[in-house]
Amino acid sequence: MDSELIQQIRYQARDLLESGTVKGVIGYERASDGLTARPFFAYEPAAVERLIFDETCSHNLARYLVDKKNEKMAVVVKPCDSRAINLLLNEEQIKRDMVFVIGVTCPGVVETSWNHKDEELQARCKTCQLVEPPVYDFLANGEAVERPQGEPYLDVQQMETKPITERKAFWSEQFDRCIRCYACRQVCPGCYCPECFVEQLNPLWVGIRIAPKENELWQIMRAFHLAGRCIGCDECERVCPVDIPLSLLNRKLEKEVKELFDFQAGLNPEEQPPLATFKKEEKLGFEE
Amino acid sequence: MNSEYQPKIIGFLCNWCSYAGADMAGTSRMRYEPNIRIIRVPCSGRVDPILLLKCFQQGVDGVLVSGCHPGDCHYNEGNYHARRKFALLRDLLDYLGIGKERLRIEWCSASEGQRFVDKVSNFTKEIAELGPRSGS
Amino acid sequence: MNLFISRDELIRWLDQLLRERILAAPVQVQGLTLFQPISKVEEVTLDFGNTTLSPKEWFLPPTETLFSMQGNDGHPQLVPSTIEKDAVIFGLRPCDAKGIALMDGPFLREPGDALYQERRARTSLIGLSCRQVQPECFCTSVGSAPNDSSHVDILLTEIENGYIVQVITEKGKALLPEGLTESKEELPAPPELQAVPTKEVTQAVREFFDNPYWEQLADRCLHCNICAYVCPTCYCFDVRDYPNKGNPERVRSWDSCQSTGFTRIAGGYDPRAAKGARLRQRFSHKLLYFPEEFQDIACVGCGRCVKSCPVNIDIREVMSDLQQLEAKSGS
Predict the structure, then answer these.
(1) I want to staple C94 with a disulfide (CB 3.0 to 4.6 A). Which of A30, B36, C148, C254 is the partner?
(2) Which of A39, A183, A211 sits opposite C220 (nearest CB)?
(3) Which of A166, A172, A286 lies closest to B87 in CB terms?
């Protein structure tokens, strides 16, 4: 644990709470296994002593900002998480003056589950290009960060080269296991619709049946709704109770959006998202 | 084409160009495969990917979306948005093993009855060869 | 008198059961362990703590058709049970067996759920006692134990060359293969577990219903359905009619009190929209309402919710917190 970093976070949090600048600070605390982290909401200055930051802090806390729109909150974010803040600003879901961003220079997070912590960094951290969050009000600077700079889409490319029958079999098998717990949707900062399309009764797109056809429709449409919006925190994959490789699915569209429209979500709150704009002349792979 | 297997094809045609084009094919007594069922929409940009996926889920084997030529959209930019959306959707369908060939995007104006007929004929034959969208 | 079955005899027995019935057993699926119907005994894994999803899905499937209407005369015909053969669930832990027994309360009391009843009657349970416990386990604090044989037809306990076989019910006796010898060994002592205080929890939930504890705890809750779906005793469901091209069917699927819109009623009003109220509901049901109705806490201490909750809402911590609230108020 980088204690210097933690002290900076606690100092800033205490200051914000004591001065009444924010209603609460959304950060991390130690989980019940004594090993990993969990989200923590500090509303009193004394509570900041519970705040931590270490390699088990995988959660994307920006997600909670949509729940707390009516109060000014501070939030502790890694570079990837802060892209979600930019996304929410861009889509006018939160107001900039209603959030105080405590950014963290992140050394990467490891694979965790309850009572279990890997030594190895998560796949997304191995290809992450960001050291500092693209948006912050205060930067908690810890030890110097050194992260491997891997190629970002190797596994997607590998999937692309497989024969189509193999791809079909693979994804069918994955979607069959889905139990429609919607944890992927609930943990995602980009999924904030008051009524999700799966809850619509009229027209009935998906319905309540938990079965392969319906699961497939759910998974594909959620991935598509995130096209050009997914900021790659991979939390959806972490929370899935049946280990569906959601990152492998979402990053395919992330790659296509990058290649076709030269766009990455969440780096700039002012930038036009690719599906909200167009170019008069563009070759997108299907016209003669 | 195997006379036993008849592909089910749905076509989303924009009211101003493609639907009128199909209409022209009809009034000119041009013949084409009857496998396609046409749904008229105001603009190709109105077509939501979820409509297309729902078609596939309901047993449709191929989906055609046809709009005005880029630059000629009745609503100025609807087809530009459609173009981007469906480029991504096709890539995604391909990646998932459903196949990009089952989703066809065309631009067909009101005077292009023959073009419409050619495109539909072509598409129907392709889908017949691909076979039913099995596993769903 | 307990019997003994060697590993080889066990394999032969399972093979025989496979031929006559559906055999659901723990199977390794891409890093998870899930109860699945098997076609070959080799698919079974017995090297697991507990399965990711509970075996409740064999009695209350994630989705099932309750009935469909055939023909135009408007008289609904009940779809027969989907079990054409009898079934055996092999390898379930005592906590999960207790979970099924708890579900019997609401599903079997008059008038009874027809499909659940039939599945229950035609399914036999071969339990596997726990020689080791996982860090998330707390069955002994909620009325079960690693070697609890109360709710299975047969209980196997692993020893060096095979398993001690306890025959609990007549149903179990009918299932056994021929020629099993008496066990020479005594049943081993069960492993020890950490105790979680539960004595006053029902009263605490009742007393602190309006306490701000729930709203605060719910701050981090994502309101997904994971806890309810992995739980052996959560049984909320939704029912919808589908037109299904002229043969309408009524479908029942898993649902969870945690999800948004669970309590939304016609007109759009949602009496339990607040996060704290929704989170409280699940604990109230398990720790207060169910015990009031069925005299038992609806939690078997399997720890799946603890393991699977993405934000570490830990029922043991909640129970402890609630009872400490009581202590502070001095009532």
Answers:
(1) C148
(2) A39
(3) A286
The confidence score (pLDDT) of residue B136 equals 42
Query: CB count, 10 Å around CB of C192?
Result: 9
For residue B33, what pLDDT is reported? Answer: 93
**What pLDDT is recorded for position B35?**
95
Q: Do C219 and A39 touch (CB under 8 A)?
A: yes
Residues A41, C316: C-beta atoms closer than 8 Å: no
Give pLDDT tens digits for B61-94.
999 999 999 999 999 999 999 999 999 999 999 9
Residue that terminates a domain, selected from A140, A166, A190 = A140
Exposed (0-12), middle (13-18) or buried (19+): which is C287, by Cβ within 10 Å? buried
Name which of C250, C258, C312 to mutate to probe chain A: the one with the most chain A Cβ atoms within 10 A of its Cβ.
Answer: C312
Q: In which domain, by residue range, is A248 found? A: 154-275
- Complex ipTM, two decimals? 0.94
Query: Which residue type occupies C28?
Result: Q
Task: Among A139-148, B32-41, C3-12, C293-302, name the one with the lowest average pLDDT.
Answer: A139-148
Q: How many CB atoms lie within 10 A of CB A3?
A: 12
**Within-domain flag for B136:** no
Whether residue B135 and residue A286 make contact (CB cut-off 8 A), yes or no, is no
**Cα separation, C295 vs C143, whole angstroms:** 11
Is pLDDT of B134 > 90? no
Closest residue on chain A to C314 (Cα): A32
Domain end, chosen from C182, C212, C230, is at C182
Q: From CA A102, how far away is CA A25, in angstroms rounded?
A: 9
d(CA A264, CA A241): 28
- Using the 3D structure, point to which of A88, A113, A140 is the last residue of a domain: A140
C103 and C163 inside one domain: yes
Tell me if B46 is assigned to some domain. Answer: yes
Residue ranges, chain C, pLDDT below 50:
330-331
- If you measure CA to CA, which chain A residue comes closest to B93? A220
Given CA atoms C268, C271, C276, C278 in this order, what sign does their dihedral have?
negative
For chain A, how many structural domains are there in total? 2
Domain range for B40: 9-130
Nearest residue in chain C measured CA to CA from A237: C310
Chain A nearest-CA distance from B41, in A, is 16
Domain hosting residue C135, numbered range: 3-182
- Residue A70, amino acid: N
CA dihedral A260, A266, A272, A275 (to 10 degrees): 50
